[in-house]
Amino acid sequence: MYLKTLGDTWNYFGETDPMWAVLMDPAREGNRWNKGEFFETGREDVKYAMQTIGKMTFPLRHGRALDFGCAVGRLTQGLAGYFDEVHGVDIAPAMILRARASNPYGKRCRFHVNQRSDLRMFADHQFDFVFSLFVLQHMRPALAKRYLAEFLRVLAPGGLLLFQQPTGYSSTRVSDETYPPQAHEPEGWRERLLNKVHDRFCAPLPPMPVATEYERSLTARPRYPYLPPLEAEDMHTRVDAAQRSAPTRSHATPSDVPYKKPQTELHTIPRWKMLAHLRRLGGRVLAIQSRNECSPHHPSLRYFVTR
């Protein structure tokens, strides 16, 4: 049921304002994204990722790549400049239809609708690179963790998984830095103790302030808009209460919902919990990158993982 609601929400955006749903710039809402500029941001994001991997001196192979949560193919097209074959996967059929219509790479970029909680459409060890930005944060942690297991399943030995996930709420702004995982990451009783500390001091989350234009300009391309104070569904989840009553019909139009529309969710997973989960899956974290790319007060981490 949750997966269907999630799919309906993003299908609504795919039919009404797909580019803004991917890059939520307040100035571009209402189909005001220029198509060329929009896809150029994808090429820039992929170029930055490749440069970071290059600095790590990781021997990345350039055969097949997977873009999970591809939407209209912003990053998929960017990956096509580095890989022989790229597959984009998304839960929303409307997004995939637009991705195929905007695809200048032919069979080099292939797009798939996947409305399951797994990636069984792909066999084991299929991809040299698995990439997912600003996707897992929009789904509940339990579902995100299932997809992470699938990422490592389809990743070829010696391949690289790069994904992004917010790690919590911070009253201070986030600085960009890349660092190796610490040798003393918490395990066992230490991890359980840290979880209790997180439960005690991080839930419920404090109300989010109303954004000013200055705050919105602090990030080059805001990924997630400020919302009114929210109620925590659980200690890692902030869900707009209006979503429970908002219509999520697959073929809704703006006239159908004049005052309300489906709201995206923002979920966080603490860094130590994410690292413990990746270890259980057999992943080896090579580096962690902190970037101010979710919102000014939500530290966002990029994880570089191999198997």
Which secondary structure elements does this structure contain, and how are they paired or packed?
Blueprint lengths: L1 H15 L1 H5 L12 H21 L8 E5 L5 H6 L5 E6 L2 H9 L7 E5 L13 E6 L8 H14 E12 L10 E3 L8 H15 L10 H4 L14 E2 L4 E3 L26 E2 L3 H10 L3 E12 L2 E9 L1
Parallel strand pairs: 1-2, 1-4, 2-3, 4-5
Antiparallel strand pairs: 5-11, 6-10, 7-8, 8-9, 10-11
Helix pairs in contact: 1-5
Description:
The two termini are 32 Å apart. With 307 residues, this protein is an alpha/beta fold. Mean pLDDT is 78; it is low at 201-259. The chain is 32% helix and 21% strand.
Tell me roughly what share of residues is in helical segments.
25-40%
- How far apart lie the N and C ends? 32 Å
Series of secondary-structure elements, N-terminal to C-terminal: HHHEHEHEEHEEHHEEEHEE
**What percentage of amino acids are in beta strands?**
15-25%
Global shape: globular
> DSSP helix count?
9
Q: What is the average per-residue confidence, as pLDDT, rounded to a whole number?
A: 78
Largest sheet: 8 strands, mixed
